[in-house]
Amino acid sequence: MRVGVRSESTYAVAIMALTTFLNAKAFTTESSTNVARNMWDRLSPLPGGKLVFSRLVGRMAPYTGTMRANIEELREGYSRVTLADRPAVRNHLASVHAIALANLVELTGNIAVLYTLPDDARLIAAGIALDYTKKARGKITGECHCPAIDSSAKREYEVRVLLKDEGGDVVAEGTLRTLVGPKQKV
Q1: pTM of the model
Q2: Which of 86, 109, 89 lies closest to 157 in space, CA to CA?
Q3: Residues 143, 36, 183: CA angle, nearest 5 degrees
Q4: For the chain, which ranges sit under pLDDT 70?
Q5: Quick count: other Cβ atoms within 10 Å of Cβ 2?
Q6: What pLDDT is stored for residue 132 in this prediction?
Q7: Distances from the Cα of 40 to the Cαs of 44, 48, 74, 98, in angstroms?
Q8: Do 163 and 141 contact (CB within 8 A), yes or no?
Q9: Can you list the domains of the chain with their CATH numbers?
Q10: Separation of alpha carbons 153 and 29, rounded Å
Q11: What is the pLDDT of residue 96?
Q12: What region, left, alpha or beta, does residue 30 occupy, with left being phi > 0 and alpha being psi -120 to 50 degrees?
């Protein structure tokens, strides 16, 4: 039965992805590949694969995982991530909390950079600047076009992220300072 085979292969890939993602070595010193890019490329075409990938990213960054944001699109130099408006991410004014928006900016920008990195590079956030332009209500979409990164040489990049509501209005603009450098050998 085709459906059963597809479900079993999706499950097998998800288990493999979870095993790989939860292995800290994959993101630090001993991985010779860009694990995030490889996992997205393998999971995103599968039914439920984008959701599985999004939750795996949330496992690697537990605070970010509490938002339950969904990585919708990811390719060289670009990411699109959505955040549902739900009580857990709201403030006392019944809008999406400023820190949830900051977290969405960081996730959207860093996942775009992470996908774009050469196999021998890693990143860390060095700073963030945000301008909140409108109360954020409803589903919020983060979009990032990041610069090309063709070297693991230590360098800081400015990464701009726009957050928009369902009507297309900008609710926040963010700039990440992202430090890229070589994976350290142990």
Answers
A1: 0.83
A2: 109
A3: 110
A4: 1-31, 185-186
A5: 6
A6: 96
A7: 5, 12, 8, 28
A8: yes
A9: 2-182 (3.10.129.10)
A10: 15
A11: 94
A12: alpha
